[in-house]
Write a structure and sequence with these properties.
alpha+beta, about 300 residues, 10 helices, about 15% strand, 3-stranded antiparallel beta sheet
Length: about 300
Amino acid sequence: MGKVILENISKNHDAWVAQKRDLKYPTVGSGDIAAICGADDYCTVLRKWAIKTGKEEPDPVNDHMLFGQAMEPVIAQICERKLGLKLRYGDTLWAHDQYDWARATPDYICDSVNWIDVNAAIETLNEGSAPWTLNGMSDAIVEIKNVGFHSRDKWVPETPLAPRFQTIWQMGITGHHSAIIAPLIGGDIVGGFLPRYVAFDKAIFEQMLGLAEKFMWHVIQGVPPEPSKGDHKLVEELIGPIDKGVSAMLDAKHADLIAEYKKLKERRTSVDAHSRELKAEGEFLQAKIRALMGSAAE
């Protein structure tokens, strides 16, 4: 069981946001862990590092975020009605009992889940497909998700890795062993409310802790982690303009990386040349056909 760092977040929202953005005492929350594990479609581990070290600003609040925040209590009410639950707002910041930087703030908590009834409701809503079932009564974390219609394919039939990692992280810190992810997809209450189970997995949580601890070393030491695909522009921003008057000496262990880059560059040059040849050949054939057809459209 973790420890409570801050209660009544709804009344201390500024303090909650401040601790999340404190550059002197960086933390890893459930909103960070997916990126650190390489499972966030919108943020790489390098960009997360840049944000935590103050080299990049967090994404500004946009319309999608505002709408998601506004919809959260509405989806929670739908969850109560559809699953027969009684939820209470999370409203508490938790920290791991050994790693104070590991933090979590669950959306909602259900103090007494009747799993027999909830199993039946989830199976019905998911057209008879339930990942696993529980019996008896227990507490559970409930994670609310407002999902756009165009993201439906990412949620059906499987739950994406990012929210699963998020809830496992929350459970590991708060001491819960069960969670329900409650997404409302495309605002469709009839066919788009598709709640799923997530069971706590100690082995996965420990692996996540290991990755998070490694990430925290990079943050504290100010050493950037290796870039991922899609980090090209960010690397350019972090390093700045190239100084042609300065040379860098790389270790011999990086020779393979440089050789691989040169080989890929040569392949790309070859592909580009072939593409130009195909384009020219296509234009030539098109011209011959047009000459035969004259002004006819078909």
